[in-house]
Amino acid sequence: SGNVKRGKTEAEINRLSKFLFCSLLFLSVMMVMKDFCQHPTNPFVLVSLTRFMILFSSIIPISMRVNLDIAKLVYAFFINKDKEIKGAEVRNSTLPEELGRVDFVLSDKTGTLTKNEMTFQVLCMQSKILREANFEDIKDDVKELCENCMEECSELNEAKKGTEKNLNIEEKIFVQKKNNPKHLLRCIEAMALCHNVTPSFNESGEKYYQASSPDEVALVKFAEHVGVVLEHRTFKQIVLRTPTGKLEYEILNVFPFSSTTKRMGIILRAKNGEVLFLMKGADNVMSKIISNNEWLEEECNNLAREGLRTLKYDAASALMSNRDLEVFKIQESIESGLKALCITGVEDELQDNVQRTLEMLKQANVRVWMLTGDKVETV
């Protein structure tokens, strides 16, 4: 069987009891020392020693030990029956008194102080900041922009028919840089494409998203809410459904997120042959890659002060003809041409009564140390 867990309070009481017993024995011996020296063979010396040990026995607080054991049973009962502490169960009645000795609480943030349930809150672009109150307007804008793109593509294809390759909506959204007012649509498309999320269906046919990070699920769900739906994904293909039809992209390569790079990238090929490189990552890493990032730094700090988790999205396009480089070299070369798209703000909701609990711990002079990878402003 395993070792019995004992608290520091009980260990201290045991040490004190041993010390008091030694003191009791010492005092009793001192009281009979004179008689023992005068009559070493007299058997009544042992009787006197026993008598003094009984007289001094009140030095050892036996009643205190009994009272402590009764108290442990009482407050263990109250903890088990406390309706405000759901699921609490006292498995060892010798430990609850240790709660009163706590000076430091060491805690992780995500999933401990927070619910690990991400909710999309803010989309920040260079020209505007869109919050939850604007999301329905974004949905209407995305639909209108997709329809405009289809109309413009049809007109251009008609004008260029027989002379050049036809345009499609992917090229219209991502490739044209000059006089392109469709920045919002590019941001939504980037959120729907740059991730490791896979759509799945349960037995009842309901759709759900599988991903290693709840942040990515929140971003994909936001894109779905405003009209750009992740319909299908395999190792080689991503299919989006927009208000005007489906968009298909071939996955050429994925640069997964890691604790070293702190960013994630994906290279896609649209139907027209154009290659897109999309990347998202932590603001401190992306700021070193992107030029003209003053507004990004300012907005990231603003969102962090609101307690939101921030990600920066960037995009680049390139023609892959006559290019056969190693994956790492490709990533480095394309990163140098990235253009900032937007910043996203995702909220990880706090557990119920976390704020009240932390305030009570502070009043009890208990210091809380929290481990997190977020910015100081977010914490």
UniProtKB/TrEMBL annotation:
Q: Which Pfam families match?
A: Cation_ATPase
| InterPro entries the UniProt entry points to | ATPase_P-typ_cyto_dom_N (IPR023299), ATPase_P-typ_P_site (IPR018303), ATPase_P-typ_TM_dom_sf (IPR023298), HAD-like_sf (IPR036412), HAD_sf (IPR023214), P_typ_ATPase (IPR001757)
Q: Which UniProt keywords apply?
A: Coiled coil, Membrane, Transmembrane, Transmembrane helix
Q: Which GO terms describe its cellular component?
A: endosome; plasma membrane; trans-Golgi network
User: Per its record, what are the GO molecular function terms?
Assistant: ATP binding; ATP hydrolysis activity; ATPase-coupled intramembrane lipid transporter activity
Using the record for this protein, list the coiled-coil segments as residue ranges, or answer none.
139-166
- This protein's name: Phospholipid-transporting P-type atpase, putative
